[in-house]
Backbone:
């Protein structure tokens, strides 16, 4: 089965797909397009869901709401940003960077004290640096290699623990025995005091470790939310889900293992 | 006191500041820069905190974590996107749009079936449409007026309830009697089963309406979070905060009124 990820070449999604499978993935223009192919069963998708600095990835969370897919694995990619340019750091006159890359490297950028021009993607930064040879691009090592731009500074990121979590999405759920985590989407449809507290009770009572909660707009107007929950897999988790189902609509993305990325 | 917002001219922040004060605000290059001036007491900042389609605004949530400011008001701006161009819709060959604008107008874009080129901001889209007269920019009505580009299509947004919530940030807290909402940041510093459930108990027990919960990365590595809570103001809310303070570190942003935007 083909692996589909957000392109263009040199994205972190591209990097993680190659690391997981050893093969070149299909590169698509949007995260939604990855979900469309996964829902049809025409591809296995790999999409970023959260970053330890920037938080949740909106288009992926919205894709999970909109498309009928299951989560069949997760993996973690340490994120390193580099500065790539055809001239030395002393000669660089400006830096091209995606706003999120800028946010993740803000301390190094402040020290460099050069004008920063925002672009629409890390690949766009690389292409700009190919055109304007006095400039540098803040991109991944993989992107610098792909676009053949020399790396002049490494580890620009503010945090040494900067990590992005990816999920594998497929038409059908995971059925192996080694699942470690489960994910659900709860859409309460109404807003009453104590609601979220009540939704968490089935987990708290069973001492199930809730590894993540993320609220997303419900699409029914401001102040109305849906909740993504991730929690540890196991018999107790099934119990908790069954109890929750009695009170609120739940979508289950299934339980899944951790995939190892070797880079 | 000067009002500071994220620029350039024609952003929704610019529009809301003019609507609230009737005066031209100081336009700054980043949301962080707005926080810096507000923390020093040199400006009143107005920054977007959440959108009913796209969710929380990361740089604002991170600014609240990093800078010592209070929230002194909130207001809601209905968001309308328009297509602006010097040629008619039949002649348009491509559309410039910020990725978030693209996301909020995805259904209209699908119907138009034109190539979409992503830009770094709505203002950048407007400037591109000024340069390339065969193109259109997906921007606000205020931006189209500011950059003097004719509007050729209105209400591109998927959702008719598309709304952005803004907060007013200042060095000192609000002390009026008409506060309706309070905001706090909880940083649990550790992760134990049932923790979030326990954090919500003081509110649930008092039947206090929790209007919003948003998790943000703690900066201590992936899987570690801080929580923003918004809840209704009042004596019971003070009680709940005092109880919470006994168990976890809390930052209080204060209680504040709803400001009316007249557009």
Residues:
């Amino acid at each position: 089965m083909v692996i589909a990820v957000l392109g263009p070449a040199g994205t972190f999604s591209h990097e993680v797909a190659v690391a997981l499978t050893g093969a070149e993935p299909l590169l698509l223009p949007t995260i939604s397009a990855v979900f469309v192919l996964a829902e049809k069963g025409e591809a296995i998708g790999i999409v970023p869901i959260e970053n330890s600095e920037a938080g949740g990835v909106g288009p992926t969370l919205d894709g999970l709401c909109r498309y009928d897919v299951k989560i069949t694995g997760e993996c973690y990619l340490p994120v390193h940003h580099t500065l790539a340019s055809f001239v030395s750091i002393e000669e660089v006159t400006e830096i091209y960077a995606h706003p999120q890359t800028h946010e993740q490297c803000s301390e190094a950028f402040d020290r460099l004290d050069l004008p920063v021009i925002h672009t629409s993607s890390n690949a766009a930064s690389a292409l700009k640096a190919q055109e304007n040879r006095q400039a540098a691009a803040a991109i991944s090592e993989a992107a610098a290699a792909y676009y053949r731009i020399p790396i002049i500074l490494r580890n620009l990121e503010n945090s040494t623990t900067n990590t992005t979590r990816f999920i594998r999405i497929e038409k059908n759920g995971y059925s192996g025995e080694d699942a470690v985590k489960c994910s659900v989407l709860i859409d309460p449809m109404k807003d009453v005091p104590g609601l979220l507290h009540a939704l968490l009770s089935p987990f708290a009572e069973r001492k199930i470790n809730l590894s993540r909660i993320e609220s997303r707009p419900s699409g029914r107007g401001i102040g109305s939310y849906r909740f993504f929950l991730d929690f540890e897999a196991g018999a107790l988790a099934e119990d908790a889900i069954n109890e929750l189902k009695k009170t609120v609509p739940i979508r289950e993305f299934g339980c899944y293992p951790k995939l190892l990325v070797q880079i």
